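User: We ran a pulldown and think these components assemble together. Before we commit to crystallization trials, I'd like a predicted model of the whole complex to look at. Sequences follow.
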Amino acid sequence: MTIAFYLASAVAIAATIMVITRRNVVHALLYLILSLLAVALMFFALGAPFIAALEVMVYAGAIMVLFVFVIMMLNLGPAGVAQERAWLPPRMFVGPAILAAILLADLLVLLAGNPASAGQPQVVAPKAVSLALYGPYLLAVELASLLLLAGLVGAYHLGRREPKKEND
Amino acid sequence: MIPVSLPLATGAVLFALGVFGVLVRRNAIVIFMCIELMLNAVNLTLVGLSSQLKSVDGPIFVMFVMAVAAAEAAVGLAIIIALYRRKQTVDVSHFNILKG
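Assistant: Here's a predicted model for the assembly, 268 residues in total across the polymer chains.
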C-alpha cells in the first residue's frame, strides 16, 4: 500500500516538473493529465475511491477538455495544422506513456490487494459522502450550484464576440 | 497504513511546484494549468488528513474545491480568449494595460 503510494507520488511529482518545464503547451497538458491521474491514484490509496473517480471525471476529463478546446481554438487557420503536426511528434508520447504505464501497474497492484487486510485505510464509501453532502452540508451544495451558475454566465459573457456598435 | 506525513509532503511539493510554475512561466494557459495543480495539491492534503482522522469532511471539501476549480477554469479560459482577441497573444508580458 505504502509502496504504491510512493510510486504514485513519484509519478505525480515527475509529471508536475515536466508540466512547468515544457515550452510547448500541448506537451505540458499531456503531463498535467498524468499528474492529475497520479493524484487520483493517491486518493484511491488513501481510501477515498469516490473522490478518485470524481478527480478522473471532473479534472482529467472535463477541465482538461476545456483546456484542449481553448488551445486548439487559439490556433486557427492553415498554419495551425502544420504547427500541430510539429507540436506532437510520436516520440513526444514516450514520456507520458512510460509514466502512465507505471500508474497502471500501480493501480493493478492496488486493486489486487486484499481489501480486508489490516494495512488498508478506512474507506470512505460514496454513500457516506452523499449522506453528509445532503445532510449537514446542504447549504454549501446550494452555494456551489450558485457559484457554478455564476461561472457559466460569466464565461458566456466574457467569451461572446463584441456586438456591433450600430445600436449605440 | 500510509503515514500521514506522506500525502502532506507530496501535497506541499506539488503546491510549491505550482507556485514556481506560476512565477516563472509567461504563457497564460500554462499559468492556468499551474493554478489547477495548486488546487489539486490542496485536495491531496485534505484527503490525506481526513484519511488520518477517519472523517468524511475531507472528501466533501474536495468536492467543493472541484466545483470552484470548474467555475474558475471556465471563467479563466474565457478571460484568456477575450485577451487573445484583443492582443493576438497569450504571453502575459504583453498584458500590461493596467500598469500605472
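Chain B has a mean pLDDT of 89. That may be worth checking against your pulldown data before setting up trials.

User: Thanks, that helps.
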